[in-house]
Known about the structure:
It contains three helices and 13 strands. By secondary structure, the protein is mainly beta. Strands 1, 2, 3, 4, 5, 6, 7, 8, 9, 10, 11, 12 and 13 form a 13-stranded mixed β-sheet that branches. The radius of gyration is 18 Å and the shape is globular. This is Thioesterase family protein.
Amino acid sequence: MTTFAANAPIARIHEACAPGAQLELDASWWGFGGLHGGLALSLLTAAMCKQHPGLVMQQVSAQYRRALRKPFTLDVSASTAGRTVSWLDARAVEDGRVALSASALFTNPGQESGPVISPPRPAAPPPSQCPVFTIPPEFVPFAHRTEIRPVGKVRPFSGAAEPELIAWLRLVEDDLPPDSARLIVLMDALAPSYSAVLHTPVALPTVTFTVTPGSGLAQASSPWVLLRARTDSRRRDGWLLERLDAWTPEGAHLGSAEQVRVAVSRD
């Protein structure tokens, strides 16, 4: 069992992630009611990448079944390989129960073979010209590990006209550019974009989370990520679909993500 306290850097935790690793993280690593969701998926991803060294992860998709609050094991299955693609499944197991499951797709490193198509980066001033947005640690303990600088005037639960949030983000503990594991953490570091149109806090937990790295990730040189999150649809029963994209300060596309969330009534 490897235990990580509040002062441990995320990079050290990722280094400890391997198939079969047993981890314990204190409550300073929690999001809403348990281990931060993006961090939890990044730990499974790091373990899967170690089982496939030299291959490129093209996509990872997770299902959140229950919150992680106790020590857990990273369980990685044997890979299934086709002619050009390999798949891995992994689970975070707590007290013998699966709390988080994930599947990842890997390929051999490819060569440039055609034009790159990616969404254009939204106009945004540099991070130094954007104000810092502080999330109370008693609300989201993990938030003190990130620096968030919103672009524009829209904030969570501000009653905005559109369900969209745009902000610069970075991990405060190091100046390293994002890799696939860091990107997953940052993709889940903003408040839910649907919260922008609300006036009062509502729980919007993630049920599924899929991250697809972009062409710019391998060449990223800055710790700063520009993230745009937008809710595309919200059904009457509370289920909603959120899409996210991330870019470097220079405009290279780092990746895309999709989250299925559900609004939880407090009644």
